[in-house]
Design a protein that fits this description.
- InterPro entries: AhpC/TSA (IPR000866), Thioredoxin-like_sf (IPR036249), Thioredoxin_domain (IPR013766).
- This is Alkyl hydroperoxide reductase.
- It comes from Pseudoalteromonas undina.
- Pfam families: AhpC-TSA.
- The protein is of the alpha/beta class.
- The protein has a 5-stranded mixed beta sheet. Strands 1-2 form a two-stranded antiparallel ribbon. Strands 6-7 form a two-stranded antiparallel ribbon.
- The protein has a single domain, classed as Glutaredoxin (3-Layer(aba) Sandwich), CATH 3.40.30.10.
- It is globular, with a radius of gyration of 16 Å.
- It is built from 4 helices and 9 strands; from the N terminus they run βββαβαβαββββα.
Length: about 180
Amino acid sequence: MTNASQYTNKLLPGSRFPKINCPVLNSNEVELGRVQQDAAWQMVVVYRGQHCPMCTQYLNQLEEIKQSLQDIGVSLIAVSADSEAQLLTHKEKLSVSYPIAFELKPEQMNALGLYVSQPRNAQETDHLFAEPAVYVVNEHGTVQVVDISNNPFVRPDLSTLLRGITWIKNPDNNYPIRGMHKG
């Protein structure tokens, strides 16, 4: 049995979100985790790629909460290791208006502490890909919320996540970043 620390370096809550730039369609590049539009926070959703039907469903569900996120000052971006051509093909199955970045590199996946998988076969995809993750980055560039999965079947429920972020962002709740105790 291998030690998990031998192959993964999880991005911890309360840590600085790494500087990661990726291309987006109809634009040059975007820096993930960076304030976008009029939002002070950003939700970064990592998905496996166009080969994953569960990712397609999740990305479309994200569109349903996009306005509610904007209403509480959180912008939304998704990213995968897919190529531009793969993203263009995938867009035919998506009904989303938020930006989607592509060409997430293995070293960037590592910086995010993602689980990385090899394709089962050439029909699945032609490159390494990241397993799903959600990061909510606050106005200081700090990871406020993190959820990293090793497969497509474990992802946060979006309505619960939205309620939680709304609670966290309410200054009356004085809710700290959770999961930072080392013991």
